[in-house]
Every structure is written in C-alpha cells, then in structure tokens.
C-alpha cells in the first residue's frame, strides 16, 4: 500500500477486496485477531472500537434534536464555513449521489446534505444531523475516525466496524482552529464504492485546508499587545514576551507558564500541585507564594485566580511544533524544535509533555525517512545517542560513518548493565 490512509491501491479489484474485508471482519469480531491484509489504520480503529465496547450490530444514537441542534449549530465555528463546504463539495455530492457531512470534535453530525435518495438511505442507519458517529460510539467510520486520529482517512465498505454501515464508503478530513490548532470537527463525503479512489481523500483534505484558511481570514485580528509569546524549548528558563516587554522567568515560573498556557480555562491549586510537585508533602501555601511572586513578575492583570489562569492568549513554541506535526509539516516542525522542553524540569506534567513532544517529532522524522532531517536530529545534543533515529538514518543514507556510529550504539546497548 503506497499510502496507508487510502482505502484501495490503484488497480485493486474492489469486489475481491470487499470479500477479503468481510472475512477479516468476521475473524476479528469472533476471535479478536486482525488478518494482515487489513490496513493498520483500520486494524487500530477496530481494536479501539472493541475496547470502547462497540458491537458490530450497534446503532448510532441521536443526541441533538430540533431546537438544541439548531442552537448548537448556529454557535459552532464550522457554521462559518458551511457556505464554503457547500460550494466545494455540495454539487459533487448531489451529482454523484453522495452526501456531504460535517461533524464536531465529538463525532456528532451537524449537517448532512446531498442527493435526496441517498439521504433517505442514510436516514435508516441514523446518519443524520444530531447523531453521534464518534468512533467510541459506532466504531470505525471516516468522520469519527478522522477526529479520533486527527488525520484525513478513507473507510471502504467492510472496513466499517458496524455491519449496517458496510455498504457505504466515505472519506473525511479534520478541520482545525487556525489559531490554536484544536480540532473543530471533520468534513466528510459519504456514498458508494467509487469514493475509495485516492482522489476523493485528496479532495476532502483540500476542502478542509480551504476551510481552515477561510476561518483564519474570518478571525478578528488580535492586537500584538494582547498576545503573549512563550519560548520554552531548549532552555531551562523560559522567555515571555508580552505587551512589548520581554521577561526571563525562573525555572519554577517557567513551569507554571507552560502549564497555564496550555489551559486557558484555568487550573485549580490542587491541579497545579499535582502537575508541579512529585513530593506530595508540598503544601498549597508554598504554591500560593510562588504564584504571588509570578504575578508580580508578570505585572498587573495578567494572572487571575479561582482558577489560576492567564488573561491573555499565549502562543508558545511548543504549540507551534505540535500544530506543524498535526498538519504533517515535519520539516517545519523540526525547524521550530530548538530542543527539549525545559530540559532540567522534573515537574511531572512538564516531563510528560516534554517526552510526548519529543517522541512525536522523532516518530514523524523516522516515518518521513528524509536523510537530511534524520541527520540534523542525530547531530544535536539531544539526538546524538538516539538509536532508533540512527538506525533510520542508516537505512536512508548508509555511509560508512553512519554505519560505524550505529554499530557503536548497538554495542553500548548490548553491554550496558541492567538497572538494579
């Protein structure tokens, strides 16, 4: 398979592939094992569906009705780009006897439009506005899986987890808030087997990107004084720029700013204690004193309490890397990554975030298999002993120097004494 997110390889026989998928689906639902020909993205989704307790004969439930649905749709950010979705996908859906569907980040369908007779068929399986099509509710399906994995995805016929959806094929792509990178929902095209063509996935992904560009244009411009910038990668003491003023933060204040910047809704004192301190004997008084000092450093009006929260949006270098990884911009993400997050910090929440960000970037670099990007990583202080990346580099660029370094690392792994 040249692209694991595309349902059918060029030249594949849809009928034969469908027969194979039906046998594989039966094998999984009866024995819990996934035969090898099933795509990894589908196999992983089937396993998540089973863990969530979804049965192959499940039926989607309708969660939003009439007035509740109308009010929710009117306030949803994707309402602003529905005219764009209709312009780009509406005619294609109607002429091709397909459906255009848009869901929120929880997999609830907000709009389902398109060919009239196709809509009537879809109604019978509750593919209707207000119904919950999250992967955890109805198993593998394009809109639900797209928001679950935050990737464009096709689902062909019997790749669907519940049987009543297996006559359908769909392709969906997540749509993100252009400012925060947060998933707002997904745009989907649903219909017959013809949608398994790679062009369908590319088309729906392009529509999602167009929607994100439109949302960026529609968003009000934010004055520079109302946006703070936080740099915390590759340094133990973060740098905050706010209101035209640069502030170098202490290590503890750096940890606090990183955590608060990721929780604009705020964090309670208890939540901050758990996030910051391994030692459970640290008292709330200690934390309150630290926050009082931070408030003086930041200046008036920037830090509020009950819960503790920042009063201005914060753009951090961490969120920049995350957004670029989410959109597949691996080179741009690697460029923005100037080192591990607050490398000396032992705050539990910071350690988890640091490891997750580094692992996400490493995984993307290995998957991209670009020898230049891999070489850049292993020639940094944090990547010089990264065995997995050296191994990927040896596969992509097997020079004598690279092979020698990989062999040295292998020897170290073999002779390294076990931890006691």
TrEMBL record:
Q: What are the protein's UniProt keywords?
A: DNA-binding, Transcription, Transcription regulation
OmpR/PhoB-type domain segment(s): 244-310
Q: Does the keyword Transcription regulation apply?
A: yes
Q: Does the keyword Transcription apply?
A: yes
- SMART domains attached to this UniProt entry: Trans_reg_C (SM00862)
What Pfam families does UniProt report for this protein, alphabetically?
A: GAF (PF01590)
Give the signal peptide range: none
Gene Ontology MF annotations: DNA binding
What Gene Ontology terms for biological process does this UniProt record contain? phosphorelay signal transduction system; regulation of DNA-templated transcription
Q: What is this protein called?
A: GAF domain-containing protein
Natural source organism = Streptomyces aquilus
